[in-house]
Amino acid sequence: MSAALSSPETSVSDASRLDEPQRLSPRRVRIFFWLLAIALGAVQAWATRFTMNPDGISYLDIGDAYWRGDWHMAINAYWSPLYSWILGFFLKVLKPSAYWEYPIAHLVNFLIYVAAMGCFEFFLRNFIRSRRDSDELTRCEGNIPLPEWTWWALGYTLFISTSLQLITLRLLTPDVCVSAFVYLAAGIILKIRARSASWGRFALLGAVLGFGYLAKAVMFPLAFVFIAVAGCSSTSGFRQRAKYALVSVLALSVIAGPFVFTISHAKGHLTFGESGKLTYAAFVNGVDPWYPEDGGHLIGDGTGLVEDPDSWSPNREMLRHHARRVFSRPAAYEFAKHVEGTYPFWYDPSYWQEGIRTSFNLKSELDAIKQALMTYCHLSISVFLQLPLLTGLFTLYLLNQQPPVCVRRAAECWPMLVLGLAGVGLYAPVHTEYRYVGVFVLLLWVTALAGVQLPVSRRSQILLSSVLAAVVAINGMMMLLSGIEQRQQFRNADAVYWHAAEALQQQGIEPGNRIAMISEQPLGEGGPYVARLARVKIIAQVNRPDLFWTSDLPTRSQIVEALVGTGADAILAWRGTSELGLQAHWQQLADTPYYLYRPDNRAPIQRTSRQ
What we know:
The protein is α+β, with helices and mostly antiparallel strands and 611 residues long. The protein folds into three domains: 21-260, no CATH class; 286-358 and 494-611, no CATH class; 362-488, no CATH class. The chain is 62% helix and 7% strand. The protein is built from 26 helices and eleven strands. The strands form three sheets. It has a seven-stranded mixed sheet with strand order 4-5-8-7-9-11-10. It is globular, with a radius of gyration of 28 Å.
């Protein structure tokens, strides 16, 4: 009897003796990874400082509109406002020149990343605290849980990899900002679960989720999942939990309500954002996301203006606004009647696609889910992404004499599991990208790692430390190699867009002028990046430059005349001519891959050098 009673005590003693004298100080580990995270983030932000993406142009334009008080132009049902507010604030205060505008925007991205790291620190600290009772029980049962220093090492390894490899700082998008609010909300839920429920914490949770919605519309439906999880995490009675949840909903409404009301009024129906609907239409229903139909307008075919027989689309009668097609093959479009932002068509896609209806199609839905599963599988098995962590996790689970015990222990962290699955699951039926789900993938990994435990023995401690060190080292090496590759990719990065914008102004194109562009947009390199810095407006487009430059000369001339006929002061083209030789009447802008056509200057081409 006494021997039986002393056995647990011996196990506890052995576990404490093996686990408490940690080789690494948690504080030193945290400081090391803080410095590492900041350094890697700064390198990525600096290496990509002159890059730009289509979404970034829209956010910059909307930010300008907000901070100059142009509310009519600023209110946008497609792009959420918070990220634009932040970008616009820094541009208004710092007033950078055209050369520094994109680097400043990437600096803002980096600062948001540092803020997200602070939010992650809050989350991980509360997560470690929430595991202490469970860890003590694990020691009493004669097992070794993850020591604290490994949580900090693994946690920050996950944060760095998801932030810089999945979300990235290269793109000007609000996804890093969203991750910060998710970490804050998850940390507050952990506090609530630790018998610390209060009116204030639930109100704070609702406010954080409200700002998360202002960063990205997808956080609106997810907010109710967070609130439900918080309510179920509380140890209070059902009625009290319901009251707490109501307080969170009210706080969410106070923050999110004004914007929901504003865009709903603008669209004429209740909406918290149109991006989800239009993404569903594009990726599930197969609607062309850029030009869903041409409206059946008259087009040029080389002999005159005729009705295009191929122009009909199921969306023709649905759309309320049309981008007028001014030439057939290759297609050229004009959108001069609604000129907002640098590139009106991508400034507010919800305007141009207003009236599109979505419909459920089981086959298309299954295809979207299949594509999402393939994305998640690639994420898990890629040696440059999550494979080292997945291998280490399986190794530690299999080293346990009873792997199901590890699974049950991980299930104790069900709030993080539910939040992670809700995030990755919400995107799966529509469209999935790494940057969308990076923060939720981290929550799932933290949940899985919480189940790790090994029997008390010196051998177990050595195996545990070895596997964890290998995971951190291999993952760090993969991130380093990825960073070196990216640095080499952008080592010759120059202010190409600024050089082209300067040359554009030297050719007499002034701010406020209207231009047409020949480029693969919104997804490819092209006019908006130059046009934003030159402060000109794009009113027409040929979005298949390959077809334009491979067309015969008479066809190209007709397309050019059609674009000039839209009222464009000039035509800006990307690449094309550099691949097929210099074309008459096109002038290369400095040494960039951009070319300019001036209707009032049809002299043979000349080159302008960078200053």
